[in-house]
Amino acid sequence: MDRDALIQRFTDVVGAHGVISERNQLRTYECDGLANFRVVPSVVVLPETSEQVRSVVAACHQAGVPFVARGSGTGLSGGALPVSDGVLVVLSRMRAIVEVDLDNQRAVVEPGVLNLQVSKAVAADGFYYAPDPSSQQVCSIGGNVAENSGGAHCLKYGFTTNHVSGLEVVLPDGELVHLGGKAPDPPGYDLVGAFVGSEGTLGIATRITLRLLRKPEAVRTLMAAFEGTDHAGDAVSRIIAAGIVPAAIEMMDALAMEAAEAAVHVHYPEGAGAVLIVELDGPAAEVEHQFAEVERLCQEAGSTTIQIAADDEQRALFWKGRKSAFAAVGRISPDYYVQDGVIPRTALPEVLRRIAELAGERGLRVANVFHAGDGNLHPLVLYDGDVEGQEERAEELAAEILYACLEHGGSITGEHGVGFDKKQYMPKQFGADDLQVMQLLRCAFDPEGRCNPGKVFPTPRLCGEVPGPRRVHPVEAAGLAEVF
Amino acid sequence: MAATLEGLERGDLVRPATGADTVDGIPAELVAEPASVEEASRVLAAASRAGKKVVVVGNGSKLGLGNPPERVDLILRTRRLDRVLEHAAGDLVVKVEAGARLADLQAAVAPAGQWLALDPPEPGATVGGVVAANASGPRRLRYGTVRDLIIGITVVLADGTVARAGGKVVKNVAGYDLSKLFCGSLGTLGLIAEATFRLHPRPAAAAVVTLQVKRPEQLGEAVRQVLRSTLVPSAIELTWHDPFGPSGVLTVVIEGIRPGVEAQAAAAAELLGEVGEAEVLGPGGTEAALSQLGALPSEKAEVGIKVAVPPAELPGALTDLATGWLGHGRLAAHAGTGVLRVGLSGPNPGDPEQVEAFAGVVAKARAALAARQGTLVLTEAPPAVKRAVDAWGPPGDAVELMRRVKRQFDPDRQMSPGRFVGGI
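Output (structure tokens, whole complex):
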């Protein structure tokens, strides 16, 4: 089927107002939140119902055309980067909250629903949706599902994957299936668990059943300043060792504070080398008791000043500084690269020193703002693209930071995803067999590899290979057979 | 009969099966007890070359789950894969081999004031078995199930391929989450050889509030009140005296630090007091209640049933289950999460008429539960009953996709063939 015929087919399905094929309009969709990579898609389709998504995907399948799903396009790994000969399925018009079922603590939503929209819809009843990526005002639930999005509060409450119990999915061949639901422990494979975080490579979620949580009775937040990140890191270790699971522990270093201060005027303490934002929530009596303990532990770790949020307004300000930090860095540097890596929490001081060293070697600055409680680092590599060679050095540095994370047993991504950006690092974190076995899942869902191709994996396998003749056993291949 | 597998260079990795080596009454020919991932890989690769069907067994505490396997040539026992490999206390992470018993894992991390927040009822359960069977207990209300706690996995596929996914950091989105795919897969995708989990601080204090429940509607109201409150209970458990009779006890467990626990228990008692006769238990009663918490309704039951419904449907599910069952039984539920377990003496497996009647009762209950978006699974039954009643029930519209997953991971249907959903 040629492009014109496909456009006609899409127009029949979604109407002319739901199909974009003019090149200048298509450029609106050439990148997601990671603007370094740009590809203009062949066609953009904006379906409004599950059935329309199904028809669009079925048409792609029949035509042998690859497609990429996109929500709000806030992703930071190029996961929604279009393919030039493919279709971009934009789900932003599917923005209905289909059902709110408070007795079962569930909401059923369409993929284009914004993250914060869910919490707002149930706030009056005392509920909320826990995962809170920094982009929560604009990012979509469908995108959250694809990326298994986290957020500051996932230390205590977990990630998107812990808050999705059911999915309606359009598979890459256009078939519609239901995975999980409202009831616990559905018999069969946990395909909800396999799908969430698959970065759009297994199909398109068209309805999502979310867990809702009761808002906690009490929330207390403090901001503790320290001489440097070592002391702040020590405070984190003490808090965890005391058996406290805060809702969030966030850290910002001096450079990140400088940027955030310029943007939102949080009034960080003068001369502080690092601040921690620690938030506790839960039953009031427990929170009060543990909050006092956190305060004491911060002091013991050498905190110079501790500010306690007096009210919701001040708490919001603390968080605004933290959540706007990425964008705020734009005020102190013409260009910057947001890195996302994970290390065991206990390796924090060592890895932060290593990052400073690596930055020093390359004459670049790195602002650190991160989820300290779970070791999820977001080093922001500052550079000036107009200065010859700086961009390359920044990329190198960003890569070196990931290697440092891996050396400490960590991960190349904690929440932004592998996407297009990091697929070349996958073989650094996983062995060839590990990647091959992951591909088996891909082959079950998308044997023709047309669903968000070119993402996550550096070298997709051809699915026709299995069952075929037996592979050489890895132990034999590795020459270990003689060992025994 | 050759007591080895062709092509297995180390004959000592397998031994002939004895009469006790059966799954659902089906005798095995060989038994392997590998002591390392490499050995497990060699055994599975050799079994694959020889066309042998393999069932993986931990301590066998949930071996009754699922349909009878089509064939059992080799039982792979994980009991020698029993090491706790790494406990990073400061990171609240533990990595273990699959054959390690959950109790041993708990003992290993307890000195650090930590625990793996899983409390399944089956005594002696291994970690691999808990993962493979998706076993859970009362505290799933607060901590979730094994899928929510597992952060990394090492698997050995049918052909011996060793693969890892996830890692040892809690927050990690690199690659597909195969750990979750293997949760509840009942040995049909491959051997779970190692697993890494996030740990939680062990609560320092506990309180228990009980409510006498006289009718299903009262149960529904009580659970709803607690779930809608700002209380954070670890568990809300129901025990029903007479299996399908009119009364039971609802137990709300609150855990944390002493001052918080006391305040919450008082609040819970007040809340439940509006629904019925509620009481905060004293120290002795608390200890007794906690030691009984989440026990299977009947250890001697011939037939085990697990019903899962959205929690608000629990009273209705009780009504659905109230009539027509054969034999005596007991019932208990994780009322806050909508998981209900029944232990029955069951039909006489030697009496085809009784078995057929039982199949009819199950089918009727399944239809009623389906209207509540719920399911009914047989967790234990004599082979004669299992031949008459599919253990899993209707698999839903994703079953073909599940079969495709199975075909990719285990194209020759070597691993536990026939035990799983939809004949997988």
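Chain B has a mean pLDDT of 94.
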